[in-house]
Each structure stands twice: as structure tokens, then as C-alpha cells.
Amino acid sequence: MELKKTKILCTIGPASIDRKIIKNMYVNGMNACRINSSHGNFKQYKIIIRNVRSAGDAPIILDTQGSGVRITNKNQSVKRGEIIDITLSVNVYKKLRNGVKVLINDGLIEGVIVNVGNKLISVRINNDGELVNNRKIIFRNCPLNLPVLTERDKKSLKFARKNNLEFIGLSYTRSRKDVEYVKKLLKNSGILIIAKIEDREGVKNYKEIINASDALMVARGDLGTGIPSEKIPLIQKEIIKECNKAGKPVIVATQMMESMVNNNSPTRAETSDVANAILDGADCLMLSAETSIGKYPRLAVKMMARICINAENSNYPVLETRKISIVDNITSNAFKIADDMNARILCKTRSGYTAKMISRFKPGRELIALTGSEIVAKQLMISYGVKPLMLKSYDNYDARKLTQFCVKNKLINNDDLIVFVAGLFIKKTTNTIIVFKASDLL
After folding, report:
1. How many domains does the chain have?
2. CB 162: neighbour CB atoms within 10 A?
3. Do residues 205 and 343 share a domain?
4. Quick one: pLDDT at residue 1?
5. Which burial class, exposed, middle or buried, applies to 228 when counting CB atoms under 10 A from its CB (0-12, 13-18, 19+)?
6. 7, 196, 220, 356: which one is catalytic?
7. Which of 207, 209, 149, 157 is nearest to 187 (CA)?
8. Is 7 a catalytic site residue?
9. Is 331 a catalytic residue?
10. Which of 382, 381, 405, 385 has the alpha carbon at shortest distance from 393?
11. Which domain holds residue 295?
12. Active-site residue, 34 included
């Protein structure tokens, strides 16, 4: 079976919380799991963590709720022209005004505020739909200036630390200060931060956010409600390009294959969307409702994996980078040598940095990354084409021993050409390339 190199992140919810379903998704191409803390409780999250870890070695991302506002109404059908009273999860009533356009549930329901009270707003609905409790509501062109973390989010960070999770998905990241603030709270935990770009402020500051964060998510659902939809594709491409240059893993999320919530196959438009995100340079694609509440979580993963494999067979545009450091030069040349010779890349990486800096070039063959840290190995599972290998005796493995291990465990073949990348003599750097045939070191 041909291996895909683009990673798939699945949101775990009521439709997929069962261990057997998680195992099935894992077998069909899932690489990482996401918990959305906007739904459920910590008791349920513990069940998800237990089931994910018993099913495989996928890393877990816990999303914060962030400063988004949600409706607290009971579920009800609404019709165009109807005026509905809406209550909110956060007291922002004084910051709202008549005439502000609102978008609910990723823009599926639109309306305009016609009255603002102390404990509710009245909204004239512009289209028929279903108003569902706890869905996000966006107030277009009406900044609310809310903090990046809620009180519950702070509890989520403590929960993530206590349960040794690998990532925090930082919702509504608007500046590098947001990332730096959360990094301080997570100090010495080993947890990496995935900054989620979800509004105008985040888009405006995306370059500084990329520099401050460990990875990035283009969260197109909320982004598409705060910014005109026709602008999203170019914003997506630009953010992915900048992440690739920086060697930061980038995830494209929301409505990738939304029709598979109810149908057993995606639309042709969705198939094209998935393929184009890969060709743009995404490391990882996320399934949200498709796997959390959908009828066909396993099929959604399987279908996305098939699209990935086909898209990866295309020629990627060569990433152009400014070679301003030793690491830039070493990783760029390692990729070029491997590409020219159809060679396998093996690398040693303590923090995962070397592997990510090679992965950004989208190698044609799987990159094997040796690390001595279990959490680093798991965190590398969202990076394009990287197969992490965790060995506790990391320091004892040179090019020869690593090659022998890989051949013995059928990770590479005797006749493979190998490009070995590592940092020798000096810690915390990548400064060495060795090229050889695997059989020469056996």
C-alpha cells in the first residue's frame, strides 16, 4: 500500500469516541487527534485520551475555547425576516450596536442586530436555518477585544499539562503576545502551541504569529465569517507559504469534506479543496464535524487519505528560501541531494527542529527522524512526510547504527541511497550531511 505523507488530524466527538472507531480511523490514515474544549467536559476528555492512547501513538491536540462568543439559546428553526432574541455566552452587550451584521455557525445563519439589551440582543434573520445552542456567533466589523484565554481555558491548560498532552490549539490568536503569554503558562511542560488564525486581527499579524508559535492552523470556518469568503483562498495560500519558509507545520481546517457528515462520499468540490490544500503546501489537514458527529468517520479518513496520495504524486513547486543560516543551507542541500538521487533522508533531531526544516521542502520519500524524546516523536506526527522514530539510547546512534536499525526493522532497504543529516560536535545545530548506500554500512 502506498504511504501518504500529508498528515490527517481528526476531531474526536460522540461519533468517534469509541476505542474501536478510533483504532479504525488510525488504520485508515489518521495521524493525530483533536479535542474541542468548546464541547464536552474534562471527564469526557479523559475518556478520549485513554481511548486514543490505547488505540495507537497519535498525538493529542486540545483546543481552547478562546475569546469567541457563543449563543445560549435553545435549539430552534428560524425563518427569513423573523426577529429572534439571542442570549450570549459572554457579556459583550455594551460593545454591540444596532446594524451590526451577525453570522452564526460558520455563517450558515446570517442576520442583523436590531436591538441591544442588557442580557440579550434581537436579531433580524436573513435566511432560513437551524439555530443550535452553543454555536459560535461572529459580529462583523465590531471588535470585542476579549482576552485570548477564558477562565475555563486556563483550566484546560492545567488539564493538558497534567495529562501530558502534546499540543494546545490556541483559538483566536491575534498577536505574538497571545502566544508568548500562553507559552509562559505552559513553561517546562513540553507542550507545543498551534496558533489558530480565525479573524481579521490574526490575519493582519500572521507573520509575527508564525514566528512566535510552534505550528499554525488556518481555521477557515471562523475566518470565513469575519472576512469575505472570496478572500480566504489567497489568505490560505499566503499563510501556508510563510509557514513553509519558517519550517513551521501548518494545518488547514474546517469544512474540508463537510458533506460527509451525512453522506458516504465527498463532493467533487471538496475533493478539489483537499487536493489544493496539499498542493499549496499544507503539512496536515483536519476533519472536524466529519469525524466528531458525522455518520461515516472511518470513511471520511479513508477518502481523505486517498485524495492525499493522489495529490502528492504531483510535482510540488520548489520552496525558495533565503539561506541565511547554517541550518537553512544544510537542510536545503540535503533535500536537493535526496531529490536528485531519489534517496531516503535519515536525520537525528533532539527537538524535532531539523526534521521540520527538511519536511518544509516536501521530500518525495518518507523522512525518518530519530529522536530520544517520546513527546517530540509524537509532535513530529503532524509534519509532512516525517516518520518519527523514538529510541531512548539516542546519543548512541550514529549513521551506521541508525542505518542498521532501519534495515533490520524494514524501514529502509539494503539498496537505498541515504542522506544522513545531523548536528555533530556542536549541540543545538544542524551542520552535517553524509551520503551513502545503506548496504555499505551493514
Report:
1. 3
2. 10
3. no
4. 45
5. exposed
6. 196
7. 157
8. no
9. no
10. 405
11. 7-66+147-311
12. yes
**Pick the catalytic residue: 6, 64, 150, 254?**
254
Candidates 60, 293, 66, 321; CA nearest to 178 is 66
**Contact in structure between 368 and 440 (CB atoms under 8 Å):** no
Check which CATH number belongs to the domain holding 108 and give it: 2.40.33.10
Tens of pLDDT, residue by residue over 85-100, are 999 999 999 999 999 9
- Asked if residue 194 lies in contact with residue 283, where contact means CB atoms within 8 angstroms, the answer is no
C-alpha cell at 266: 465527498
Q: Is 178 in the same domain as 251?
A: yes
pLDDT-flagged residues of the chain (< 70): 1-2, 322-323
Kindly name the residue from 5, 34, 362, 378 that is annotated as catalytic: 34
**How many CB atoms are closer than 10 A to CB 306?**
16
- Number of other residues whose CB lies within 10 A of the CB of residue 43: 7
C-alpha span between 101 and 65 (Å, rounded)? 22
Residues 6 or more apart whose CB falls under 8 angstroms from that of 20 comprise none
Check 5, 70, 248, 348 and give the catalytic one. 70
Residue 295 lies in a domain: yes
* 408 has catalytic annotation: no
Residues 266 and 179 in one domain: yes
Predicted local confidence at residue 204, as pLDDT: 95
Name the DSSP class of 344.
E
Q: 247 with 374, same domain?
A: no
Q: Quote the CA–CA distance of 12 and 46 in Å, as a whole number.
A: 12
Report which secondary-structure segment, H or E, holds 224: helix 220-226
Last residue of a domain, one of 90, 111, 139: 139
For the entire predicted model, the pTM comes to 0.91
